[in-house]
Amino acid sequence: MTTVSSSQREPELSGQTVVVIGGSSGIGLETARRARAEGANVILGARDLDRLKQAAAEVDALSSAAFDATDPAALDQFFAGLPETIDHVLVTGPGPYYAPLADLDRDRAHRDFDDHQWLAIAVAQHAVGRVRPGGTLLFMAGTSREQGVGLSLMAASNAALPALIANLALEVAPIRVNLIAAGFVDSPLSASLLGGDLDKRRAQLRATLPTRRVVEPADIAFLAVHIMANAALTGATYDIDGGQQLVPGL
Length: 250
Fold this sequence. Notes:
Elements: E1 17-21, H1 26-37, E2 41-46, H2 49-58, E3 63-66, H3 72-80, E4 86-91, H4 106-127, E5 131-142, H5 152-171, E6 176-182, H6 188-194, H7 198-208, H8 217-229, E7 237-240
Parallel strand pairs: 1-2, 1-4, 2-3, 4-5, 5-6, 6-7
Helix pairs in contact: 1-8, 3-4, 4-5
């Protein structure tokens, strides 16, 4: 028996075009790196212009655009500027809104919930006629089992997304639609949310997760590229959390 090394195999996304919305850092940028390593051309979109320029230079992006994906007009303009045919779209944003019930701002809560649900719908609408048959729309969310003070809104939003994704997969077929539901990821977003508690959280997870390691952006990127490359996958939600949901209290 012989084994073909990774250096001898064909790149999984050779010649394809991957669009990453939220591609200036963290999971989005890591997925762009992985896609490039697998032979894809990448197009990046993100809010922060300076970080976006740096990321686009690093991955030699075909193009990049600084915009707010939750702004319908800006999203329209971004898709209008894309190549006539693209292969895959990954959407990583917007970030979560955490607040205990006593401090929950109604207007912000409504806006946050709508942004997470409607962004997926809006991207799916734009994808028809732009993403090739068999191409992928891939969205990011937290796990649907999040529980704790301050997590009510995000738990509800995360629970709703798998049903939305499954139905979008039927609506826009043969374009494929999937969702990655991540637990804690050691990313810049986690660092901004946890601040001085980040190291404590890392240590806790390393000591208690079944994998005995913290999930990193590269782990998400590996899964994202596999979903893009595997033409049999659609309408599904993929949990990736190192077994976090199996351990009570994590």
